[in-house]
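worker-03 picked up job from queue 'complexes'. Input manifest follows; two sequence lines, order preserved.
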Amino acid sequence: MKHIAIIGGGPAGIESAASLAQLGYRVSLIEKSAELGGHLSQMFTLFPDGRNAAEVLSELIAHARQKNINVMLNTEVIDAQRNLSGFTITLSNQKTVTADALLIATGFRLFNVARKEEYGYGIYKNVINSLQMEKKLRTGDLTMANGQMPKRVVFLHCVGSRDEKVGNNYCSKVCCVTAVKQAIEIKKMNPEIETFCFYMDIRMFGPYYEELYREAQEKWKVVFVRGKISEAAENIDGRLQIKAEDTLIGKPLRMQCDMLVAMAGMESTADAKFAQTLNVARGLNRFYSSTDNYLRYNNTNVEGVFTAGTCTAPMNIIDTIANARAAALSIHQYFSK
Amino acid sequence: MEQELGKNAVWANYQKDIADDHYYYCRSCIRQAFLPGSERMFLHIVGNVLGKDIYDDPKHTTCTGIAYHSDLVPQETTATVIARHFALMTEAGYENMAISCITSFGLYTEILETWKEHPEEEEKVRDYLWKATRREFKIPKNIAHTSDIIFHFRHQIAEKATRRLVDVNGNPLKVVDHIGCHYAKLFPSKGVGGAEFPYVLAGMVDAWGGQQVDYPERRHCCGFGFRNYLVMANRGYSVANSHKKLESMKPYQPDLIVANCPGCAMFLDRWQYTIEQMEGKTYGANGQGIPVLTYEEMAGLVLGYNPWDLGMQLHQIDVEPLLLKMGIDYNPAGKHELGARQLTIPTLK
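worker-03 finished. Artifact:
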């Protein structure tokens, strides 16, 4: 029985493990943290229909509870070497694993908003990133650092995405719809809170996303302003002052708000040491690149090394799961040759 | 974790090499006109108080910065003038530049960065300089604004200080800092603390016992902006920017503003008078203005110098309430004397 080592226990790693096991392979699923789930375990609801993220994750994990899958938690891949029979993988627990194929599913890294210094993330307590807002929604606690409920929450799109200054020219795809979803969730929890979204373009790429965007405006009265925020600062009363240009009316704008949520983009995790050792190719966006974007998306330049999910490009959960299944099938085709 | 580190994390990312000694001094045109005491005090602090070698070259001229930013002088001309200054420094045997003006500092940096990206431009300017003056130059090893150098020695100055930035009861003075736009907004890595949360003046305030005040419009331009001021029709825009800053800082009740750009020090000071005349509004305590100091004046006060020797009588906003608040024993009658010379006392006609 062929053995596949999967690096990364997020949704892509979990789903590809389940699919590979169903296809008759033995799988080692290596996850560096204490539990499976990756970023999905930190999400509240999923767009476009508000499905609970925890439910989706537990279903994925249940699907992967198969006898052919060995889950290795708290385990990091230190190194990987290719040899004639496959791969030898050195783990942080001093053990080595041999595998016939390697599937990289290391996901993405959230853009560090502190790099956009003008927003004061890390300095002003009520400037948070989108993942921190997700936690607030999950725990049902929307309060600010001082324990009070915010009166006005502002979302800023494209933080660390489509931004040449930080070296990320690409779109992170999911941030627009995440902001729309989070603004709606806030309104559902507390209709008194005003919500604003500052955007460059609204990119509603998925099915029913456009409808969600319309619902946000018509039903939930979320206000959309086309313009990027140029800076945020704190007032004497602890509120935030933001400056932007409303590019639809062509006028500068100054606004007070209680909380600023930076929709942090996705960044590559393809700088891992093991990938460098194996010389796995990366694209201009620094994510892992494919040998063919159309026909062999999950194949890397290194024979026997495959990729799945957001380690190849920003994508949503729906696409991640589909991509993970495609990766499993690509591996199956590789061994069926 | 990131959020707990705050400004210290930002400042840690922007450390700057500042030479320890042997400076070639580049004067500022407008500082000499508006704030002559500060230029003199910088040379005195560095040369006499700190005992460093600094050369004030009489052959040095304008950098053309104001004309350059007003589109009156092309970049090649400006670059050649700056190249001449590099040549003068090379001839004098120095390698470290101490630049007194923020406009000049930004411009020297801009020229050097241009040459890094476009070496052919440097070659062209070397050729222009040779044809015009038969001079050659070396690229400076170190370029620092004079506020960088005072920041660099802030703890040594604190050791020699006879006063601190505190009131008569020992409470720290609330100090608003204002950084000239061309200090770090052009090239964030060239400024102490970067462009968004610069530490160059805040570090002096911390070292000398004051309390730095953050306020929403801290990063906003003072409004000087060459063509805003030089074109008379645009001056309302200049006042409006200073007005925006003053309105924003007022709730924090600052005791003083400290600036590292001669234009900013000038306009934040003078426009307070203009606003008072236009709107009858003042921003300091007891219906007075907020004194605007240069960092040399602030250093001079903590080092115990006579405020009139520092040239503080040339300010629009009276500094005497601040001196009284600090408990400084000064001679009010000496305000209009400068050495043995009597200054002209302004009168309204």
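worker-03 released lock.
The mean pLDDT of chain A is 97.
The two ends of chain A are 15 Å apart (CA to CA).
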